[in-house]
Amino acid sequence: MKTKSLLLAALSFSAVTFAQKREIKSAEKTVESGSYAEAQTEINGLESMMGQMDEKEKEYYYFVKGRAYLGAEENKNADDLLKAMEAFSKVSEFNDGGKYGEEALTYKQTAMNAVISSAVDDQNAQKYDAAATKLYTLYTLTPKDTSYLYFAASNAVNGQNFDTALDYYGQLKDLGYTGIETKYTAKNKESGEVESFPSEQQRDLFVKSGTHEDPKTEVTESRSGEIAKNIALIYIQEGKNEEALDAIKDALAENPDDDALLRSAADVYLKMGMTDEYEATLNKVIAKDPNNPGLYFNLGVGAADSGNTEKALGYYKKALEIDPNYSGANLNIAALMLGQDKEIIEQMNSLGNTKADNKKYEELKDKRLQLYKDAVPYLEKATSGETPNIEAVRTLYNIHVQLGNDEEAKEYKTKLDAMQG
Fold first, then answer.
1. Repeats (TPR): which ranges (predicted)?
2. What are phi and psi of 215, to 5 degrees?
């Protein structure tokens, strides 16, 4: 009797197993017919039977579930695509993915590409929270691709979801993420397009075959400085200045010579009004790149923001020594000069009608006109490039009107009208 009972149990189990396979097969046929929503209902109905499935059946189950949620080629439902990715990821956990593992990886990549496209669409539409959620989920499903976590953090910042951004940045720091990549490229001779390759060896094979030329190897900049800066700026945004300083100090302690980090630290110091620290940090960057006019320009901006006009002028002029056509420096020098105009006008308006006052008035008037004349060369430099600064053009028009230079005023009025459409 006992032997008979065991036999009946075994037969019963076999019947259940057969029924499960039949149900999964039915869901697969529904997928192949294109009825994806119906297939999802069918496959989800089998979830309660998972405990009775063997390794092979579980592998089959997740493969079919992935296909049901992947849907047709035009499917853009990110929730379904992410469920498909999750299912395809589980295929290899059972039976070592022996039957469906390789095919599941291909389908998973298809779903991933569609989710990335959806996240990019969200980002372009300024739906930053949605983009961040999708990218973070991508990271959890493909944890080796830490760049998804980085881009999720960036979108959280853009969406002003600062707590989430701090969480993501914290995870990146714990992972030691830098974002540094080595890119291998070569130009396709037929199309003229520069193409990327997964390895130096593969790129070189294409070059040797004659289909590509101009091979290049580039190492991207570290993102650690940007991450440290964003963490600090979030703390500043939340009024946590001490935490902001600690974040920068910790980052600099680990990478004291990292240019990107030094620049980021300088930005934070400027944001916090720490002028001395800002200048000291930026001067470290200048020591490594002394012929960069933009660095002196930034020092000028910092000095101007702190109210030190003379120092700002010195830095702007240093930038112009390196590049006389540096638009920002020319424009800001002119702005500092013309900033004196308000004070002169106030003095003129405060004078009375005495002979001494009238004399003083004429002196101030001449000083004001000379101020305009001195600013003109800098403004002209700021308008000499391919994309002239519209404010510089407008200012030049007004100055020439004040100076009575009718031809010059007419010329800049024409330029201004054209720029304004």
1. 225-258, 293-326
2. -70, 140
